[in-house]
Design brief:
CATH architecture of the largest domain: Orthogonal Bundle
Radius of gyration: 24 Å
Distance between the termini: 41 Å
Strand content: 15-25%
Number of helices: 10
Helix content: 40-55%
Largest sheet: 6 strands, mixed
Order of helices and strands: HHHHEEHEHEEEEHEEEEHEHEEEH
CATH superfamily of the largest domain: Winged helix-like DNA-binding domain superfamily/Winged helix DNA-binding domain
CATH class of the largest domain: Mainly Alpha
């Protein structure tokens, strides 16, 4: 049909111009050399980059040497322990990633327009986020793309994408592994809350320091330091050690205990929004919160998969709007 082909040609032309602009300074550098450089920069090691790429350290060193000669700049400080970027290397990394993104976008457009997206994706997510938001969004995705095969594991623990062979980890909080690739899905924050029954019996804390004398409910979050809450407030970040009345490794258990009046918990707003509406929970210390954005994390080797990109785009869209969207506090809307 002529109209879809015409729309595709317009989109492809725009992407081609992006590539020409991005590669204009040194258009004789092979994209593969840029990929080798990006891997080495993220891993801070030629040997680790070689392992990730399935090649040898000598090959990585050779390609980066050629890139440095082409750019007439030293990109790495080399030592026996670490391989760190120079100042010029940091600038080059940002530029290289933009170039590769442009190439990948063209590849994605060609691939996704010429054939049906198919294949398997193994995805991990935490319990509340996975069951209530990720799972229904993935159900919708498979209906739109029936050739996809989704394996979703609900895990309230950290996962190792490489060793456990996951393609995507949907997580709340900051990325701590420098060798992985983060894709931002949604903004979020954790807030302090308790049941009206608890407030009647124990009173509401009037300051962050008051939390030390209250019963708190702790979950061993994937990225949370156990027994210590780091909170953002009007005067910056406050770190407070809290006493646990009850602990669990499952978020639903903690929420239930809080509703039953056992103590104060720190939970993502989207996880307790319905409890607020029913009156089961109320927020305490309203001016204090914890950043808790939602990310899709991928391995470097899988970030260019068409089905991975498709899944991440779909999750980003559905977590932002529609029946599976994450509720956010009014000041974040």
């Amino acid at each position: 049909m002529p109209r879809p082909r015409r729309r595709f040609k317009i989109r492809y032309s725009r992407l081609s111009r992006d590539i020409q602009i991005a590669t204009q300074p040194v258009n004789n550098i092979p994209p593969q050399d840029l990929r080798v450089f990006v891997h080495a920069a993220r891993q801070a090691s030629f040997a680790a980059a070689a392992q990730e790429l399935g090649t040898s350290p000598a090959y990585v060193s050779k390609r980066i040497g050629l890139l440095e000669r082409t750019l007439k700049a030293k990109l790495f400080h080399r030592s026996t322990r670490r391989t760190l970027l120079t100042e010029r290397g940091e600038v080059t990394l940002a530029w290289a990633q933009r170039v590769l993104d442009a190439y990948d976008q063209v590849d994605s457009t060609l691939e996704e327009s010429q054939r049906e997206i198919r294949g398997a994706l193994r995805i991990a997510s935490s319990s509340g986020l996975g069951r209530n938001h990720v799972a229904p969004a993935l159900s919708e995705l498979v209906k739109l793309h029936p050739a996809l095969e989704i394996d979703l594991e609900i895990l309230d623990r950290s996962v190792n994408l490489v060793d456990e062979e996951f393609d995507i980890d949907i997580r709340v909080g900051d990325l701590r592994e420098p060798h992985l690739v983060p894709h931002h899905l949604a903004h979020g924050r954790r807030i302090l809350c308790a049941s009206p029954e608890y407030i009647r019996h124990r009173g509401a804390p009037e300051s962050v320091a008051d939390l030390a004398r209250h019963s708190c409910l702790l979950i061993r979050e994937r990225n949370e330091t156990y027994g210590r809450w780091s909170l953002q407030g009007p005067d910056g970040t406050r770190n407070i050690r809290v006493n646990a009345a009850l602990t669990s490794n499952h978020g639903d258990v903690i929420r239930r205990w809080s509703v039953e009046g056992h103590g104060i918990m720190l939970r993502s707003y989207w996880d307790v929004a319905e409890s607020f509406q029913r009156g089961d929970l109320v927020q305490v210390l309203n001016k204090f919160w914890q950043p808790a954005d939602v990310w899709a994390v991928t391995k470097i080797r899988s970030e260019n998969s068409a089905r991975t990109r498709l899944c991440i785009r779909h999750l980003r869209s559905r977590l932002a709007s529609g029946p599976f969207a994450l509720a956010t506090p009014g000041e974040m809307r």
